[in-house]
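Long-time lurker. I teach an intro course on protein structure, and each term I like to show students one example going from raw sequence to a predicted 3D structure in token notation. This year I'd like something fresh instead of my usual example. Would anyone be willing to generate the tokens for the chain below so I can use it in lecture? Attribution to the forum is fine with me.
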Amino acid sequence: MLREAWYAVARSEELAPGPIPVRVHGEEWVLFRGADGVASAIGARCPHRGAHLGDGCVAQGEIVCPFHGWRFNREGRCTRVPANRPEEAIPARARVPVRPVMERAGWVWLYTGETPRPLRLFPELEDPEYRRIHFELLWRAHFTRTVENSLDVSHLPFVHADTTGEVDPMVHHLRYGAEGDRLWIHPAPFRRSHPMEPPRPPREDPWSPEEQVEIELWFPNLWIIRAPVAAAAQMCTVLVFTPVDDQTTRIFGACLRNFAQEAALLDEHHLTHTLHVLDEDRRIVESLRPAHAPFDMREEAHVPSDGPAIRFRHLLRKALGRDAR
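-- Reply from a regular --
Happy to contribute to a lecture. Here you go:
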């Protein structure tokens, strides 16, 4: 698992004031708000007897252990042991680890490494012109398989035959590329309108920028699909993949559009369609074996349409090598 990365772990509105237990890479953390309202994350296990601090409470901006009432501040330092007499010192070992936290785009983000890099987000996520409908899913699948599924265009006519529009199973022109940590894909145009698009006349040039659907991944875990509707109108779906452990991935998602902001029917339509498509994916991805996408290319057969997923594996292997140094 890649540690030097930001992962969405909760929605900001949930953190009021906390504590909220979360898991990333199989490690347990507790989110809470300090007295100043700023979100923090500390290790979930009390160094006294190992009680879960997520079962405690927040008092005066500090976490209170549910077992013996020990208090911990956002720096992970124990500030009070109720059983101690005034002259008795708090043990130096009474500390818990901490991790950087940030709130952006309606989510709480946790950096699992030591020195955080800047958090890059797609501009649509923080553009006031876009309406955002958040959702959250839990898949019993490894992080690698979950991300790679979002880069796979050749499964559409088989897994999503009734939901993503009529698609030629032959991938004639897979347009994709990579610049640094960015992967982009321009999938082949649909033969007819995508179900998320309104009816419109046949397209003169379906490959034109004004008509082109775009899939983009900002390595390792931030994904978007942009679908033009008309003129500057656009509908998007954003997914953030967070590895809970080796068997589980949490997906934080958002449906976005920059038109008809008050149309509740569009909210429902976009969200219902997106959740249905993702559930079709889930049933397949959870069944894949081996559970972890192998780095050894000889362990699976590959064809040209697998190019984006293979590029992701190369990026991940390179990043894991940096993590190990």
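Some talking points for your students: The two ends are 14 Å apart (CA to CA). The chain has two domains: 6-111, 123-324.
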